[in-house]
Design a protein that fits this description.
Elements (H helix, E strand, L loop, with lengths): L1 H13 L1 H14 L9 H17 L3 H9 L1 H25 L4 H12 L6 H7 L4 H27 L7 H26 L5 H34 L1 H28 L4 H12 L3 H11 L7 H29 L1
Helix pairs in contact: 1-10, 2-10, 2-14, 3-9, 3-10, 3-13, 4-8, 5-6, 5-8, 5-11, 5-12, 6-8, 6-13, 6-14, 7-8, 7-12, 7-14, 8-9, 8-12, 10-14, 11-12, 11-14, 13-14
Amino acid sequence: MIQSLQTLSRQLSQHASLFVTAVAVLTFFVPDLFVWVRGTTQTVILGIIMLTMGLTLTTQDFRILARRPGDILIGACAQFLVMPCVAWLLVRIFHLEPALALGILLVGCCPGGVSSNIMSYLCHGDVAFSVGMTCTSTLLAPVMTPLLMELTAGEIIEIDAVGMFLNILIVTIIPVGIGCFLNNIYSNRKSFPTVQSLMPGLSVICLACIVGGVISTVHDDLVARGLWLFIWTFAVVFCHNSFGYLLGWTAGRLAGFNTAKKRTISIEVGMQNAGLATVLAGTFFAAQPLSVLPCAISCAWHSISGTILAGLFLRFQKKKS
């Protein structure tokens, strides 16, 4: 039974983008399937995702922050400078309506995505650097995300910076902290590695539930406004994500990073914690229900594009060697 669950978890993590996309498509045709994923339930599910992240972190991962402060500082600056600025520019270039603008700006102001560590591993990047960047951006998120939203979206809607700070603290820092604590206490138990091996699959299932909940929420608007709304929003998400990868690589090149670190910072900057953005949009921008659409599309697309980019990095490496 346990081996079957471990196999399922491994398959889900390897094909996360396909699974999340399939759930999104299914929900579009059966919108009541995930109608229950709203409000507090959605927040709890994101908390579980962050808990699974904490369960895989060790004290060694946090020592990276002290051992490589220069790399981490460059990565954090790139993370919280590139993506918000690109989002701000795209909102104006595409002349996005307020709701969609809020969604893409929120994605840009969120920390790096959890699955970026897996992508860095797949493309032979600097995994330790990737984990360090993810930890740092997550720890900074309660302050940086509300601050950046105030700067980029304050003219669109009044930002509840304090409420957003507390919400991010509750759904990210606390679950990650609990996971790290449990890892530190029970890591020597024989059964604990088995529990850890099930976390990637659980994380993918939870992310799929969040995306399903979003599709359920915006279903009527998607039907009423047709395919054009989806295509237009996807175009913005695609540009945002792609420029993140490109400018992340550029930042690594300017910093004189080696190839492994350039791959990592590219992936870390381009892949955002869109699940967090989705929950924040549903909580703080409920009056603008379409604000969750760019977040949901980002959830699925960032996983797909991250997998594609990791494969391209590996293919280029093979040709070069």
